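Input record, target 12 of the design panel.
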């Protein structure tokens, strides 16, 4: 049952941060400020479920207020959510400003949740740890102590690929967290909370996406994602369209190795126009989803939405939410060195029942996450973290 504001229920001029239950008792409503922007895909996928789940937060006594630029008003709250992308340009030249901002929030006894919205399990932002109560990422190492290891190239998988392919990656040197702070590292949510269908490239969809911060009510019934049923007739065995313009030499070397395997199997890998790409995915039994800037990529969600079974490098080293990466249940995993990739694809193409089960189960998890019921669970999960 939705709770009503006291001023609406009784006509009494009561502050908006107080709420009443049906019997008329007044309870204090927690205020959560969200400092964010809407400037990149990761920020949009961060904002979208928060905007959509606002009514559920209010029902449970928490008001979400969004702040699209840094100001003193950001600190006027009980809990502060920070999208790290807001400070993206500050890390090189104005790092001290980030710490001053966080110190000011901490001095006001605000609970601070820092959301690292960068890709991959690794992080370059552990210097905020002394100032924040929780440090959240969309994917984190299953074994938190892995964060105490220094990865020469900055990521666990680029280290592996660079050693495997001698790709010439540059060395990275970012601060490590203290062991006592590892418990602050938690899972936020992955970037599935967006529309990754072909329609997102249309003018109307782009306008709606930009207008979300001001018209969040249009998300109240959940995200309108058009899933292609997995069990339709599919005339293409495997879709694997890969670009070779990647900035990381190790990832580029890995993609070239994938393309060699695909070539031997007679699978085309050259890029095609967007309408052809999505048409191919909707007609494919399997979609290949290699690592990119991070382990989880938008391609993974495109494949799942289009109803193909996702084939991807092993993900056993990480945790994420929602959990799309359960081997032989929601995706087909292969070794990072690709030694079993061809065999895994051939086996999946032969086992129609298993392949369909995997594709359908992944869509089920996705659909349940983005509908209204899933958004309420999203709110419950976050509220559990701020208590």
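The sequence produced for target 12 reads:
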């Amino acid at each position: 049952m939705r709770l009503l504001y006291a001023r609406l229920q009784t006509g009494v001029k009561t502050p908006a941060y107080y709420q009443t239950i049906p019997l008329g008792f007044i309870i204090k409503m927690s205020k959560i400020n969200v400092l964010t922007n809407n400037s990149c895909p990761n920020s949009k996928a961060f904002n979208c479920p928060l905007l959509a789940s606002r009514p559920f937060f209010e029902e449970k006594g928490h008001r979400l207020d969004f702040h699209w630029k840094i100001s003193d008003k950001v600190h006027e709250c009980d809990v502060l959510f920070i999208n790290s992308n807001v400070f993206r340009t500050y890390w090189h030249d104005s790092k001290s400003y980030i710490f001053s901002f966080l110190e000011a929030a901490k001095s006001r006894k605000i609970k601070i949740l820092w959301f690292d919205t960068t890709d991959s399990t690794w992080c370059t932002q552990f210097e905020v740890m002394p100032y924040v109560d929780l440090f959240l990422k969309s994917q984190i190492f299953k074994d938190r102590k892995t964060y105490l290891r220094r990865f020469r190239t900055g990521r666990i998988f680029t280290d592996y690929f660079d050693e495997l392919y001698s790709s010439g990656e540059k060395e990275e040197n970012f601060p490590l967290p203290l062991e006592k702070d590892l418990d602050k590292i938690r899972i936020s949510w992955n970037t599935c909370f967006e529309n990754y269908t072909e329609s997102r490239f249309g003018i109307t969809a782009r306008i709606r996406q930009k207008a979300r911060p001001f018209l969040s009510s249009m998300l109240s019934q959940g995200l309108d994602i058009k899933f292609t049923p997995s069990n339709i007739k599919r005339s293409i065995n495997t879709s694997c369209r890969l670009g070779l313009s990647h900035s990381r030499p190790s990832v580029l070397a890995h993609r070239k190795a994938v393309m060699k395997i695909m070539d031997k199997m007679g699978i085309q890998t050259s890029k095609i126009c967007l309408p052809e790409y999505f048409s191919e995915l909707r007609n494919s039994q399997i979609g290949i989803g290699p690592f990119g800037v991070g382990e989880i990529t938008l391609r993974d969600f495109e494949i799942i939405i289009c109803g193909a079974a996702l084939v991807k490098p092993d993900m056993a080293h990480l945790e994420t939410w929602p959990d799309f990466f359960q081997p032989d249940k929601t995706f087909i995993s292969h070794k990072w060195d690709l030694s079993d990739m061809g065999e895994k694809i051939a086996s999946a193409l032969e086992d129609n029942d298993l392949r369909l089960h995997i594709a359908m189960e992944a869509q089920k998890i996705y659909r349940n996450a983005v509908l209204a019921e899933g958004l309420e669970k999203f709110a419950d999960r976050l509220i559990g973290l701020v208590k």
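DSSP finds 13 helices and 15 strands in the chain.
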